[in-house]
Amino acid sequence: DQQVKQNSPSLSVQEGRISILNCDYTNSMFDYFLWYKKYPAEGPTFLISISSIKDKNEDGRFTVFLNKSAKHLSLHIVPSQPGDSAVYFCAALFRGQGNLIFGKGTKLSVKP
Amino acid sequence: DAGITQSPRHKVTETGTPVTLRCHQTENHRYMYWYRQDPGHGLRLIHYSYGVKDTDKGEVSDGYSVSRSKTEDFLLTLESATSSQTSVYFCAISLQGQNQPQHFGDGTRLSIL
Hints:
- The complex is a heterodimer of chains A (112) and B (113).
- With 112 residues, chain A is an all-beta fold.
- Chain A has strands at residues 4-5, 10-14, 19-25, 30-38, 45-51, 56-59, 62-67, 72-77, 86-94, 100-102, 106-111.
- Helix content of chain A is 0%, strand content 57%.
- Chain B has a single domain, classed as Immunoglobulins (Immunoglobulin-like, Sandwich).
- Chain B is built from no helices and eleven strands.
- Chain A binds chain B through residues 4, 6, 31-32, 34, 36, 41-46, 49, 89, 91, 93, 96-100, 102-105, and chain B through 4, 31, 33, 40-45, 48, 50, 58-59, 90, 92, 94, 97-99, 101-107.
């Protein structure tokens, strides 16, 4: 049973517009959530994270929102740029453990 | 740059042969991890280490073993490779401890024929 779900395999957005990537989780024991970006033939790159005690974290063009009651988090990219085109993975950590649980990823395409 | 080097970057081998992948870090960090990435599965944890000679199993550990005799090196071994172990393997390190972002190497693409 998948504990971290990214239900949209792909997303296409126009340059300059907002990209919203979604992630749902099932286990309330997760207390730390992360987003990674991955380009082909490279390893995942850490993008932004959020603790379960917060509902928002912002870093430049990237904002992550956490809705604990809905067990849902989202990554907003504003404005989207062609260089943002990549696969984005949502990941979660259990309390007291370091093992990341990943979603299957969403491929974002930002068109000029 | 988290100073992670994976070797080899690509390998093709035959079913039944032993294979060892190496992850080397230059930052002296305590926590190291091995993941595999397969289409439709995201990344899944194979094994991890929280110090020299201290390792534990992850979600998909069957058919794999690991060793960490030095802080900087974490080895992943397939004792007898099978075609189902064809995958891209990523090593990661945790810079500050368990509940911190992990940083990944560029991966090893392993094909088992």
